Amino acid sequence: MSVKPYKLDDVSLIRPILILLLVVMHSFTMYAGSWKMPEGIENIRAYFWIAKFTFSFMLEMFVLISGYLFAYQTLDKNKNKKLKNLAIGKVKRLILPSIIFSIIYYFLFVNNDQSIYLSIYNIVKGMGHLWFLPMLFWCFIGGWLFMRIKMNEKLKLFLLLILVIVSFIPLPLGIGAVLGYLFYFYLGILFWKHREMIQKKLSNEKVLGILVISFLIIFVVLTLVIEKLSTIEQEQANMFIKATIISLQKFCKFVYATMGCFVMYGTANYLLNIKKIQLPQWLIKANSICFGVYIFQQFVLKILYYETSLPNLLGSYWLPVVGGIITLFVSVLLSQLMLKFKFGRYLIG
Known about the structure:
349 residues; 3 domains; mainly alpha; globular
């Protein structure tokens, strides 16, 4: 098998797919209970599964790909040598856009009865979907530190798994999320360091087929388990039992999310290295607007669902479909428009 590690075609294929999954997930997420139902919209069970499936490994894979690219830049391009330079670069890339768009999000969607201290806290932490950006910033810092710890890789992974377990405990300032996602960031680093071996194994049709089927079965079973645990948790008054149930739910999510990451990476490299598909130029160019689409998509959806008459016009079945299509189209246009300006390129370029 011929592997082209420097071309990063796998990233060019995976990242736009993840952005598409993100838009679909947010379009259907109200059917999974994450957003409130717009007035007049009824629950549809099939849409619950669409929301859960598109969310199953999507964020974890985003973080893994970030670690993958970080390792490429650090190990192959000899960048990110100094922690100070890395931190300054990621503040500009992640923290600044998070704060600016969180301020906009706050004034558009948040009840202004909040105290000034709580408002500042939420803005710094990241409003709505923007929480992901500060979390990813700390993953870069943690990944840099872990790469420089002189320790066996298996021992590092074991330590990171311990941190995943710790992340099940509710912690302030989004620390729990960082501890949980840092595992995937470092997994991305290992994927890059051992990419030829991993690609070869995961690109095997039988291995990949077994992995896909196993993932689907485990995803369905554990999603049903999580749903059942959620019902029990709501009925419980005992705080210890509630905390235990929530931890079990997070563990189930961790299991199928990790499997999903292997499936996604294996499928992408199977298509590229075994089937020898050539990525179209529009897909490669789409990578340049992925960050912008991520930023804008939730703004557009929230306005469509809660500030317009679209739910009443479309009804329960068509709302997430049409809403998702409109959101993707508008987010792409806004991203392309913003990239035409220097300030826009600075924020999302």
